Write the structure tokens for this entry.
Amino acid sequence: MQMMSLEISKAIDILQEHDLLVSSKVLDENLFVTHISYNSREDQTNGIFFCKGNNFKAEYLQQAVDAGAQLYVSEKEYNMGISSLIVKDVQKALSILSAAFYGNPERDLFIIAFTGTKGKTTTSYFIHNILDQVYPGKVALFSTVDRIVGPKPEDKFKSDLTTPESMELFRDMRRAVDNGMTKLVMEVSSQAYKKNRVYGLNFDIGGFLNITPDHIGENEHPTYADYLFCKKQLLINSKVNIINAQTNDFDTVIAAARETSADKDIYLFGRDTKDADFSISSKEATLSDSIFDVSAVTDKGKQLNVDGEYKLGVVGDFNEMNATAAIIASRLAQADKKDIASGLRTARVPGRMEHINTKSHGTIFVDYAHNYASMKALLGFLRTEYPKSKLKVVVGSPGNKGVSRRAGFGKVLTELADSAILTTDDPGFEDPADICKQIDENIDHSKVEVKTIIDRQSAIREMIETSSNGDIVVLAAKGEDHYQKTNGVDVPYPSDPTVAKGILKDIEG
Ligand SMILES: CC(=O)N[C@H]1[C@@H](OP(=O)(O)OP(=O)(O)OC[C@H]2O[C@@H](n3ccc(=O)[nH]c3=O)[C@H](O)[C@@H]2O)O[C@H](CO)[C@@H](O)[C@@H]1O[C@H](C)C(=O)N[C@@H](C)C(=O)N[C@H](CCC(=O)O)C(=O)O
Ligand SMILES: Nc1ncnc2c1ncn2[C@@H]1O[C@H](COP(=O)(O)OP(=O)(O)OP(=O)(O)O)[C@@H](O)[C@H]1O
């Protein structure tokens, strides 16, 4: 990456433009910084340092100054003997100054962004797979699972957040642009808006998949209204909108889109409906793919010329909805129907509806479903497609977040599962046995056979060993995760697919 920099006078101008500057102390009018950071543990030579975060301490700023910082940005004056910019909102300042520091890479990218309680990662992978065929090596991906910023293997790495902190966001956009990329497909979480990680960013296409109560709690959103408010911001900040016409709170969502876009730039899709621009219907599903039809209902829809049958290499009727959103977005990014069809046929999403065939222990699905709505969609789909099979689920719920998921899992297991083994999934600072107990208390034991086995690998082994042909084993909620977050440490874990395959090798050879 070329040397990046930011002049203090330019920083002041940008903050003033956004009405964020409270005061400034400029010790050197010609100062231009060549390093940017919010983490005092890094080298800060000739750097700008941002004091941000709930757990920020003054000593971090002192450490940054000692390490070479020349300028700090903060909501509070610390009198450190270096230049400072005091701002109304440090997260917003971090976003717009990071964009400027990295030379506004967003201006060189066609950006497609998706939000939704469920389906963001899947839809992003579908679009990436389609567009990468049309523009090989030129499409970046910022997803919960991977970030891809260039065509070489070293340009692909694991993500820590669904939507990165603004500084990393603009840094990785810069890397993508420097690597010759021209398009970016990204997920935007509600937290990204809550924490102003995407403040100031405008999207070419913004998509809204669905919303159900989730992410409400101590460290996330105080209420559902706040969650919805944050999520709909994506549409307000997008030029063209793609919206699921059957989402909850549709009226609020469409009103948000209309705040900044004309109806000609808003595309609606739904299942078996006349109240949208596109209607989809399922035709056929097997254990490895599903076939569905897309038909345009309105003239606006017809103009995109995407009507027809599509085969999707990832099952689940909800994935047909994700795929339809991907079809519309990809067409708007100039992919043609043939490319879209082949991109969907070959698309794979790590940890989402991966299936493993066994010789004599049924079919195993690994899926990231980790709240009531997604488990209901997953188990409901499997129940409908395989009415004669026993549905056997291994699942746990994380500690210190999404506490409502525990009752949700109890409810959905009662509604749809035949048996369940409750186990550990990112317990954080809680006791996994307590979490399992809380799920268990919400299960009707007359309907589901339930066991608790705290060690996840043993739980999976027990479920596979006690299953036979015709059974469906669902390893839920963890997807491809390679760790268990335990007491503040990411403890390595081989991942559910690896564990399942290892057990099968042991017992089936
Ligand atoms: C609650 C929340 O949003 N926290 C995020 C936030 O942390 P923060 O700004 O409050 O920082 P902090 O952890 O309080 O630390 C304070 C500051 O001191 C600095 N520090 C700390 C120690 C030190 O020695 N020196 C130092 O300078 C830190 O670098 C930091 O800037 O900014 C950090 C990056 O700058 C994020 O990693 C962190 O995400 C936490 C870990 C997280 O897990 N967030 C989840 C809830 C989240 O955002 N999830 C959504 C997906 C949800 C969905 O599916 O919809 C996501 O987009 O991933
Ligand atoms: N459109 C959908 N409606 C309901 N459930 C879905 C939908 N798409 C995916 N799912 C379920 O949700 C799980 C997570 O899907 P995905 O990772 O694509 O969503 P996400 O929005 O990125 O989730 P998260 O924010 O939790 O990372 C899938 O494994 C599947 O079980």
Remarks:
- The chain has three domains: 6-101, 105-346, 354-508.
- The chain is about 35% helix and 25% strand.
- The chain has a mean pLDDT of 94.
